[in-house]
Design goal:
13% strand; 9-stranded parallel beta sheet; TIM Barrel; binds magnesium ion; 11 strands; binds 3-hydroxy-3-methylglutaryl-coenzyme A
Length: 320
């Protein structure tokens, strides 16, 4: 697959003011597979994560310790984690509450993510809680995780728009972000769960968070490509100084409790842009594309990633 990348492309052209290196937080095995109709066998999931680590990805979100009835696609978390021993990557998992944390700690997990919402509608749909009740649910989780020296990411979904409530006011997002920082999260990931953000909105939110005392170094961005804005939004975030970007191999995923959410930004599309900007990622794009082609065959549908399609030269998983 590597040789299918045209020699010398993308040609690195630096833009001043951008970071020299970006850490990609790969969410395909969790955010991607949670949204698939089919339940992917646990052996395939483990193989997927090993292959992703082999591409050079340093952070791979592996699974969720949520209620198995809420996300049956990830109900095999207890089987999966022991299969990942020795994988050379950070392997964070989603944890909504103390029950989830106990399950994760029992398996030796070293990084977790709690996942809040900027809107009441999504907090209710995703967590069966109000926004404030969700923060109250997370507080003892974060405290216990920190005691155990487990790193904690805080997701904030619906930072830009919400399918039930429309545009989300900046102060509402800032309030939730501030609360997650105050309970002790190490990092926040700003989710455009339904993919409606545009670059000016991204810059406005990042500035509003800085004004609220949250430094850019502690912020990651999580874009969905519903309206084709994910890379433009990423570029804006890079210009603001963000150096952690979430993406999903092959563009897998959406969100089971937000029907209008289409795929996450594809990791291959992100890597193509970053390498074109001369930004280091440590990722081998050829290997990554081969992994997404392999996964597409398991899922029975082609990857929506433009880069995967261009590099594999097809639009059908059968031909891939
Ligand atoms: P609930 O029904 O309110 O739960 O759900 P509860 O606290 O009332 O407990 C009910 C029962 O569930 C109890 O059992 C608990 O023990 C059990 P019982 O006593 O009745 O026998 N239970 C659990 N079992 C296993 N693991 C657990 C757990 N917790 C409770 N962790 C709950 C509340 C939070 C559990 C539920 O709403 C849930 O699991 N939600 C998760 C939904 C989810 O994973 N959504 C997708 C992730 S978010 C996302 O994708 C967005 C993001 O990617 C960013 C973006 O894209 O923008 C992050
Ligand atoms: Mg997502």
């Amino acid at each position: 697959m590597t040789e299918s990348i045209p020699a010398g492309l993308p040609m690195p052209m630096h833009v001043s003011g951008l970071p020299a290196r970006v850490r990609i937080h790969e969410v395909g095995p969790r955010d991607g597979l949670q949204n698939e109709q089919m339940v992917v066998p646990v052996e395939v999931k483990a193989d997927f994560i090993r292959r992703l680590a082999d591409t050079g990805l340093s952070t791979i979100e592996a699974t969720s310790f949520v209620h198995p009835k809420w996300v049956p696609q990830l109900a095999d978390a207890e089987q999966l984690m022991p299969m990942l021993k020795g994988v050379p990557a950070r392997l964070p998992v989603l944890v909504p509450n103390e029950r989830g944390l106990e399950r994760a700690l029992a398996l030796g997990v070293r990084e977790i993510a709690v996942f809040g919402s900027a809107t009441e509608s999504f907090a209710r749909a995703n967590l069966n809680r109000t926004v404030d009740e969700s923060i109250a649910m997370f507080a003892p989780v974060v405290a216990r995780a920190r005691e155990a020296r487990v790193r904690v990411r805080g997701y904030v979904s619906m930072c830009f728009g919400d399918p039930w409530e429309g545009a989300v006011p900046l102060p509402q997002v800032v309030r939730v972000c501030r609360s997650l920082m105050d309970i002790g999260c190490d990092e926040l990931s700003l989710g455009d769960t339904i993919g409606v953000a545009t670059p000016g909105h991204v810059l406005a939110l990042l500035s509003a968070l800085n004004e609220a005392g949250i430094s850019t170094a502690r912020l990651a961005v999580h874009f969905h490509d519903t309206y084709g804005q994910a890379l433009a939004n990423t570029f804006a975030a890079l210009q603001h100084g963000v150096t952690t970007v979430d993406a999903s191999a092959g563009g897998l995923g959406g969100c089971p409790y937000a029907k209008s959410a289409t795929g996450n930004l594809a990791t291959e599309d992100l890597v193509w842009m970053l390498h074109g900007l001369g930004i280091e990622t440590g990722v081998d794009l050829g290997r990554l594309t081969a992994t997404s082609v392999w996964m597409a065959a398991h899922l029975g549908r082609p990857s929506p990633s433009r880069t995967v399609r261009a590099l594999s030269g097809t639009t059908s998983y059968e031909e891939q």
